[in-house]
Amino acid sequence: MDAILLQILNGLDKGSAYALIALGLTLIFGTLGVVNFAHGALFMIGAFCAVTVQRILNLSFETIDPSKTDFLGNPLKVQSPYVVEWFGADFGNAIIDWSVPIAILFAIPIMIFVGFAMERGLIKHFYKRPHADQILVTFGLAIVLQEIVKYFYGANPIPTGAPEAFRGSFDFGVLLGFDPNAIIYPYWRLIYFSFAAVIIGGVFAFLQFTTFGMVVRAGMADRETVGLLGIDIDKRFTFMFGLAAAVAGLAGVMYAPINSPNYHMGMDFLVLSFVVVVVGGMGSLPGAVAAGFLLGVLESFASMNEIKSIIPGIDQIIIYVVAIIILLTRPRGLMGRKGVMEE
Amino acid sequence: MFGLNKKDASLLLVVAVLTMFAPFILNPFPTDSGLAQFNAGYPDLMQRFVIFGIFAVGFNILFGLTGYLSFGHAAFLGVGSYSAVWMFKLLSMNVIPAIILSVIVSGLFALLIGFVSLRRSGIYFSILTLAFAQMSFNLAYSVLTPITNGETGLQLTLDDPRILGESVTADGSIPVTNLFGMEMRSAFNLEIGAWDFQFSVGYYLCAVIMLLTFYLAIRIFRSPFGLMLRAVKCNQNRMRYTGLNTRPYTLAAFVISGMYAGLAGGLMASMDPLAGAERMQWTASGEVVLMTILGGAGTLIGPVLGAGFIKYFENIFSKINDNVLHQWFSFMPDGIEDFVVFIIHPFIGKGWHLTLGILFMLVVIYLPGGLVEGGQRLMSLFKKDKADDDGSHAPTKHPAE
Amino acid sequence: MGILEVKGVGKRFGGLQALGDVNLSVQENTVHAIIGPNGAGKSTLLNCLVGKLIPDTGSVMFDGQSVLGRSPHEINQMGISRVFQTPEIFTDLTVLENVMIPCFARRDGSFRMHALGAVSNERDMLEKAEKMLSDVNMLEKAHLHAGSLSRGDKRRLEMAMCLVQEPRLLLLDEPTAGMARADTNNTIDLLKEIKTKRDITMCIIEHDMHVVFSLADRITVLAQGTPLVEDTPQNIKGHPKVREAYLGEAHVD
After folding, report:
1. Which of A27, A203, B45, C173 has the most beta carbons within 10 angstroms of its beta carbon?
2. Subunits that touch chain B (at least 3 Cβ pairs < 8 angstroms)?
3. With an 8 Å Cβ cutoff, are B243 and C76 in contact?
């Protein structure tokens, strides 16, 4: 029992990331009808927002401490970050420590801006082109974005720490009445899951309870009719692109402490997220979220030694196997609607 | 000629002449000149041109004709490579059985994947092929290690049980791949003045096979079968109500293009007998998509051009560094020179992929027909200018258009 | 015994009974029209005949063989061709290629791996296609892209593509829908010509009474998924039930 629970928990953080990216992909696909291969790059840019904020907060100036010497006997150079100088040691160091959560504040406007720029500058011109063209141009954009990041940040993963308070793990099992040490769970993963749940809840509430969301949902169902009603659906769709970009970006920011960001993390996640979208059902938001968590948890189960000893290598391919089975038995995915992406 | 019409025959002839004389054509600069680094006439690179040409021509039979965008074609390339290396290990160092096996195995593999994937179309098909290829890649890295040798890649060793041939040569090394005794890596050097031309057996084998496959592709394009494939791309509904079963047509195209990919993989292994899982990764599948689109999907010569273009610039561009740039722009005043070099720097050397990505986006946006369409546009511009000139001399003959 | 025998066909979509209990007999070498108000089930019936839909009950026999459970291409190979409401043609191919595809389908069956021959060497097929095109007065457009044709020409092309297969039964789904009067008359002339020149059975679904009465030998009136009457055009014109269900409604404005 506790082993099963542990695997479910382990699957949740990856599942959260899948769900967030898939949610954005589905928003874009459902509203704009565009297949966005550059969505993984948005996730990656988000993660690098965290890296950048951490670097900015760590910007230091150099002072020479004459009282100490280094091993060569020269006066010791001391690096002290500006924030420490400005806000004092306690508060300044706390700011540096909390750089990833702080990055969220920066990432939101940046990601919305990137999303707007992408939609207005590029995607807009592809609404009427075939899906293959959309895939190709966004694939090219993904390469460009990831090469730009590689140019500035290098090819190696950049470790980006969570705040001190959330490093390490806690005994989750005890809370639920299991034996101590049965379920040890890192704090940050729990935070990531809660964060994802809040964002997903927020997006759904936004679509459900605001007039804006209502129009967008109507547009997802029947774009032409909504256009005929005299509603400027295009502007709202631009905003949706910004929103989807922000969701992917935030997923990336918060993922930075779990997996050190590197320039190709976006592509790695994109392939899986597409599989998630297809499994959930193209154009279905609840489907995307459900499939994200489902596949994350399945992946985690498949990596249990007990399972691997029965079917070797299953952890590597479980997601693809599930996707293939689902696509062949339920062509529209778990919750897909009729008429989406069909001839 | 060869059952082709005049236009196709001359196209084949041009390609044949270009590939046969490639060692000369691609080596225009003397060996000791500063421009020698732009020479592409060395066997290793030329082999890659033609091998990737085969890969792209095959991909084009699927994507260019039927419109099915596969994102998993590298899987067939990888399978072809593995099969060829196993043939070298078990049977003989002769490349013929290895190449035959790689085509057969990849064809069977394509039959399996195509049978499943082609039940869906559009984006679903792309995702399915992507999923299959990633699955093969992951399996090659993990469970199938006994067959693929995992991360290290499959290589020849000194204790391979080669049935027809020796495990070890007399001097204690691994024997090399050959075609009835002609070693793939052996080359004939021709020095003319400051130029050094290399004619390698491996390149000419690849080139001949490429010409054969290119010829086959032309025949397929012009055949009733090719017409049916173009009809699939256009209107499957009408096809069904015209009494045609679309599934076997698409499956046949998929298997043929998978066999082309396998052939390319087998040739790759024949030139350099090792195979790694990274050949199956989806970035490799993406590369052949880039080549085909960049050259011109659905055209005959486009994929070959695209493959040559990408492989040439990948090799040459990535060799240019800041020093080279400073040399080129040394005529400029210092400040401006540094600035120009600074601007160009991200796009060269390791930044080649950035250039490729931008170029690819530009092609998709402005030139959906790829380099071929670009060439046609240039030609028509040129012709128009000429026509205008004629018009000015004899205005009465040409009424206003 | 007609060439097409529909017996007791019913089809239900969720709560909607689209077709009730349809019986229909189309005699060889006649033009049989099916008319009825919107939502009468005309298109559903047609889709059941060509294999797009499978009826819940009943049987559909073509020339003594059941078509039920067969896929559209198999049904076509049995000798049933279909013209769509909006012309379905291969817009990226030339007009000539459009007509050659059904020629190959007729000769080679539903699939043939004919990858090494050249289309340009298929003399018989080329001649056949060109003959067909000249029959519909489109020979001079043979090398145009089908997508660039006018709507009327697209319709003629689609008709040519069906006729070149020499089908025994040609199904036409509102062949004049959305056409101008002149185009409609042209289509009527074309169909009349086909009727006199060839041994062909036609089954037309049509809204336009003018078309129906100038072509049909027999007319079936469909309302709410069941046939009301089946009779000759003269008798249908005066039939009170038909006026009530269909013509009366149409004559209000």
Report:
1. A27
2. A, C
3. yes
